[in-house]
Amino acid sequence: MSDQPLVSVIVPCYKQAEFLPEALDSVFAQQYQNWECIIINDGSPDNTEAVAQTWLAKDARFKYLQQENQGPSAARNNAIRHSSGKYILPVDADDRIGPEYLSGAVAALEQDAELKLVYCRAAFFGDKHGEWQLPDYSPAEQLVRNLIFSCAVFRRADFDRVGGYDESFRHGYEDWEFWIALLCPDGKVLKLSAIHFYYRIRDCSRQHSLSREQIIDYGFKIYEKHKDMYLRFHGSPQQCLIENQRLKEDWAALMKSPRMKLANLLFIPVDLIRQFMKK
């Protein structure tokens, strides 16, 4: 085990104590042995601490941190900055990972120094079942919508390079913005061929509860932070709106201001983006 690089598994928890044992059990079951798992209580009002303590007693590789509620970005940043691993894997407290995820990801990263991120195929569980069908990664489409879920393995050095997750994204899309910062323009990505990640579907999730205004605000913020990448891969959104009559007709009701134009461009269907990029 001493020859294996250390992987830091980061598990933020807020109001998810009932699901936490399942997530931690999936970490404990990893075939890859050289890991630490940092559970960070993001000011949760439930019994997260009590649940975490049972796992600390079970295995010294589990560690526990606590902070006032600041959101998932701050929780991940805090835990990662207290970690010691060469590689990082965030796992939400209501999800779980397959037993071969770490071994497959670390092997790939160790073999290819140019790899920035390794993820895998995924499946739903909970209120919905079946494989999560996501398009293959491309930098252009990653700018339009998030193609990579939050549970992916990356290098701690790259986390430090980009400054971590943007803590102003308190209600969602923090992983999307982080992947753009980590990968664009030319970061190399590998998707493992097996299903190693299991995403719990619940009626109430933080992303489902986002308001239209929050989506617009976050979309605009992502665009502003990475404008050079949007211009490189998609050109000027204002010019696209002017030149493409179909886009103008379909979205005329939404395009009431330059701010709305930029934000809505990020969330239009990918097939429509493909059509007007060909013109």
Number of helices: 13
The average pLDDT score comes to 86
- Report the top-level CATH class of the largest domain: Alpha Beta
How much beta, percentage-wise?
Answer: 15-25%
CATH superfamily of the largest domain: Spore Coat Polysaccharide Biosynthesis Protein SpsA, Chain A
> Which architecture of the largest domain would the CATH scheme give at its second level?
Alpha-Beta Complex
Assign the structural class, choosing from mainly alpha, mainly beta, alpha/beta, alpha+beta, or little secondary structure.
alpha/beta
And the CATH topology of the largest domain? Answer: Spore Coat Polysaccharide Biosynthesis Protein SpsA, Chain A
Low-confidence stretches: 244-251, 256-260, 269-274
Q: Order of SSEs, N→C?
A: EHEHEHEEHEEHEHHEHHHHHH
Helix content: 40-55%
Detailed description of the structure:
- The chain is α/β, with parallel strands linked by helices.
- The protein has two domains: 7-201, Spore Coat Polysaccharide Biosynthesis Protein SpsA, Chain A (Alpha-Beta Complex); 212-277, no CATH class.
- The protein has helices spanning 20-28, 48-58, 72-81, 101-111, 139-142, 156-162, 174-183, 212-225, 227-234, 237-243, 245-251, 258-265, 270-277; strands at 7-13, 35-42, 62-67, 87-90, 96-97, 115-126, 130-132, 153-155, 188-201.
- Strands 1, 2, 3, 4, 5, 6, 7, 8 and 9 form a nine-stranded mixed sheet that branches.
- Mean pLDDT is 86; it is low at 244-251, 256-260 and 269-274.
